[in-house]
Specification:
mainly alpha, CD2-Gal4, 3 domains, two-stranded antiparallel sheet, globular, Zn2-C6_fun-type_DNA-bd_sf, transcription, transcription regulation, DNA-binding
Length: 667
């Protein structure tokens, strides 16, 4: 990039337009000062029109802010950028995903240095009441990292390994406990169910509290996280990020601020984990951040985080075992380590794939890596403890597909994301129908048959799943995929009567399942739940509005009850994500327009009052069917094609990702 430190003064915009001589005075030229006009000039390196005194004002503002900081004694010296080594020792190059992963940490640090969402964590636990204290610098805030007590930490682990790690097996249970939990808390307590209801984990257990040499005891004596070793910082990141995911996945059981607080502290040591020389450990760090971002709106946005993870997979070659020839990144050549690393490579790739496909469906964006480039089998289905034992004894991965294991749930989700990816590709990316099928309808019927086979094969018995996973979530995903397949799409904008019936059924099922999760206090997603509810609700109302047959067999009171259930869940989610409010209001208006066709005049008055809207120019208030159709179509497709996450602004490029001409390098 060109040096922007100094440039000659040029004639101002006004003098150029008036074709008068500009004396290039500062901060204003004489003609501009005479007519009391702003003296504007063009910034040569960006093309922006700015005041001539722009840089001078910035310098004055910086000096003013530094003086205020000094007066309030919040900082002792001017903050300096953290120096980056010229020759990185990381396993990835400057244009790789890991460079981008470092940017994610940098963006987070920039944001946490300006405003803190909640109060500092108390000295003893992570459940204090938030106050209005503002953020200080990251280094100061990091010095207040505190861990929950061992019993609370183990509660979080049970929740994580039974709900989250079953869907996304990012972590190998025994490996995680030995590398990250034991150095901090010591051996886990006996009797914990970490996704092993009917199996015995290969772990040492103890009821003793954390010993004096554990990080839990040493942390109170450390003034800043920078004083900790790399291993300690990495362990802190993994534990705190897992805790935040566990709490976010059970949002109705914990204070709303708690997962944000845990994740905030995890991010203070994120960069250390993301820079790990172990490629798989670095990828795990990024995937945990992505998993949290799916559950809660977070910065940076999920689209950029999962893109980083996919590029890391490609850089390490774990997306194509044929090309990689089973050569994995290991520090030891022992066969046992190779077998474990091979299983880890497979599970990490499929976790990345699953998250990528899920997000692409939500945001209507292209996949991060085409299926034609992927040549890697699913990970082993046997329980983590047996993977460890088999690798140690035989040096190879067993091929058993029976026996209790939480990874039966993982496999079900991997298979479903593969189906959803193909649906997205053909119906929403407008790709050609595969040649094996004669028409779009033939292809859709085959996809529906494959989806039904998947649904019939999913495990429901805990003696098979080996964990306390709510299998109702799989039913929810089935109906979401069914709706994606037969609802309005760019390839099929006008559903047939049979398609409408299927959409009405799946839309109703999705709302009922979400309301059941809400009443049972099992909601685990925020913005994604809003997306699913809105898509289901608008699809259901669309069918009722345009299908006389469906209206004939549907009771108006049942429609009101169903919409009330959807609105109740959205109302609850309003405090977690800004996207809930416009969706809730739109769904109310759509419901009002639809029930006009279904109720008598006396019922209409009652329902109009219930779904009252103050928008006098509401396109739905006229009762015009075409306007209702257009509105529903636009609303649905805007949520298919436009991301609505409040915090998904792109990260600024790292200097290494820009060439001399200011162009972005390929990543």
């Amino acid at each position: 990039m060109k040096d922007t430190g100094a440039s000659p003064l040029v004639a101002c915009q006004r003098c150029r337009q008036k074709k008068t001589r500009c004396d290039r005075g500062f901060p204003r030229c004489r003609p501009c000062e005479k007519f009391d006009e702003p003296c504007l000039t063009i910034e040569p390196w960006s093309g922006r029109v700015i005041p001539r005194s722009y840089l001078s004002r910035l310098e004055e503002r910086v000096a003013e802010l530094e003086m205020k900081l000094t007066e309030h004694k919040e900082v002792k010296t001017t903050t300096k950028p953290v120096p980056r080594p010229a020759n990185s020792t990381s396993f990835l190059g400057a244009s790789s995903g890991l460079t981008f992963a470092r940017i994610l940490g940098s963006i987070f640090r920039e944001q946490v240095g300006s405003e803190e969402p909640h109060t500092r964590v108390s000295t003893n636990n992570l459940s204090t009441t938030p106050s209005a204290k503002s953020r200080t610098t990251v280094a100061q805030q990091a010095s207040h990292i505190h861990l929950p007590e061992k019993a609370v930490a183990e509660e979080y682990l049970e929740r994580y390994f039974n709900l989250s790690n079953t869907q996304m097996p990012i972590l190998h249970r025994e490996d995680f406990i030995q590398k990250y939990f034991e150095p901090v808390y010591g051996p886990i307590s006996p009797g914990l169910n970490l996704g092993c209801t009917f199996t015995q984990p290969a772990l040492q257990t103890s009821t003793a509290p954390p010993g004096p040499n554990t990080l839990y005891q040493r942390l109170s004596k450390v003034s800043s996280y920078r004083d900790l070793s790399t291993e300690d910082q990495t362990a802190l990141y993994f534990l705190l990020q897992v805790f935040s995911i566990a709490v976010a996945g059970h949002m109705q059981l914990y204070p709303a601020y708690l997962p944000e607080r845990l994740q905030f502290h995890a991010m203070t040591v994120y960069e250390t984990a993301a820079k790990s020389e172990d490629g798989y450990e670095a990828l795990q760090a990024v995937l945990l951040l992505a998993l949290y971002s799916v559950m809660r709106p977070a910065d940076p946005g999920i689209w950029y985080v999962i893109g980083t993870a996919m590029r890391m997979c490609v850089e390490m070659g774990i997306h194509n075992e044929d090309r990689r020839k089973r050569q994995v990144y290991v520090s030891s050549g022992e066969p046992a380590n190779d077998a474990l690393r091979l299983d880890m490579a497979r599970r990490l790739f499929w976790c990345t794939y699953s998250l990528d496909r899920q997000i692409c469906v939500y945001l209507g964006r292209p996949n991060g890596l085409g299926d034609e480039y992927i040549k890697v089998p699913y990970p082993s289905l046997i329980d983590d403890a047996y993977v460890l034992k088999a690798a140690e004894q035989h040096g190879t991965l067993p091929h058993a597909t029976t026996g209790p294991s939480y990874k039966h749930i993982s496999l079900a989700f991997f298979q479903l994301r593969y189906i959803q990816a193909r649906v997205q590709h053909v119906l929403y990316d407008l790709a050609e129908v595969p040649r094996a099928y004669g028409s779009l309808e033939h292809w859709r019927s085959e996809m529906m048959r494959e989806l039904d086979e998947w649904y019939r094969s999913i495990p429901t018995d805990e003696r098979i799943t080996n964990c306390q996973f709510n299998v109702g979530i799989l039913s929810l995903n089935y109906h979401q995929t069914r709706l994606l397949l037969y609802g309005m799409s760019p390839a099929a904008p006008r559903p047939s009567p049979a398609d409408m019936n299927m959409c009405a059924d799946s839309g109703r099922q999705i709302i009922e399942l979400y309301h059941r999760l809400y009443t049972e206090e099992r909601l685990n997603y925020t913005w994604a739940a809003v997306h699913n509810l809105f898509f289901a609700g608008t699809s259901y109302l669309y069918v009722l509005h345009h299908s006389e047959d469906e209206r004939r067999v549907t009771n108006s009171k049942s429609v009101q009850t169903l919409i009330d259930e959807a609105l109740a869940v959205m109302t609850f989610l309003q405090k977690y994500t800004d996207s809930a409010t416009p969706c809730l209001n739109s769904l109310r208006r759509l419901a009002e327009a639809t029930v006009r066709l279904m109720v008598s005049e006396s019922e209409k008055v009652e329902l109009t009052e219930f779904y009252h809207t103050s928008d006098s120019d509401d396109p739905l208030s006229s009762g015009n069917d075409n306007k209702v159709y257009d509105f529903i179509s636009q609303m649905q497709q805007s949520f298919i094609w436009e991301p609505f996450l409040a915090n998904s602004e792109p990260a600024p490029p790292h200097p290494h990702d820009i060439d001399e001409k200011g162009q972005f390098l390929s990543m």
